[in-house]
Amino acid sequence: MQGGIDNNPPLKAFHAKFPIDTMAGLPALTDDLMWKEDVPLFVTGKMAALRLGPGAGNLEGARAGAERVTLAVEALLSKSDDVSKEEREALDDSQATYRYAWGLGSRFEALESGD
Q1: pTM
Q2: Which of 8, 54, 64, 73 has the fewest CB neighbours in a 10 Å radius?
Q3: Any idea where the domains of the chain sit in the sequence?
């Protein structure tokens, strides 16, 4: 692929330090578009095409990628010790709603987290 990891010097260097599987030059990201579970680098756009599909490089892909990254960042923050109990509960509630809206969670999970 012309725009793959090998043709992107910063990602090529990052891939050398934190290797992951690739296919046709595209990184095999997690479902949350994270490089690896223990490496919180998020990738969107054409580089996320293996997870987002053929629309990854257009506006629909950008929107879908942004939603997935938002959910993942909220999940990372909710696990952080720097977040208060109230903030953690608010993040959990909004995350369940987003997960349902994007087809990643269940309707019952979203209803259960509401007031």
Answers
A1: 0.66
A2: 54
A3: 5-83
Instruction: Identify the residue whose tokens are 């010790």.
Output: 81
Radius of gyration in angstroms for the set of CA atoms belonging to the chain, rounded to a whole number: 16
Sign of CA dihedral 26, 29, 34, 35: negative
DSSP 8-class letter at 23: E
- 81 half-sphere exposure, CB direction, 13 A CA radius: 0
Q: Helix 85-101 and helix 59-79: axis angle, to 10°?
A: 150
Residue 96's CB: how many other CB atoms inside 10 A?
21
- Name the one residue in this structure whose structure tokens are 């909710």: 78
Decide: 100 and 114 in contact? Cβ < 8 Å: no
Question: pLDDT tens across 12-63, in order?
Answer: 999 999 999 999 999 999 999 999 988 889 999 999 999 999 999 999 999 9
Distance CA 21, CA 38 (A): 15
pLDDT digits (tens, 9 = 90+) for 66-101: 989 988 888 887 776 665 666 656 656 666 666 666
For residue 59, the SS3 value is: helix
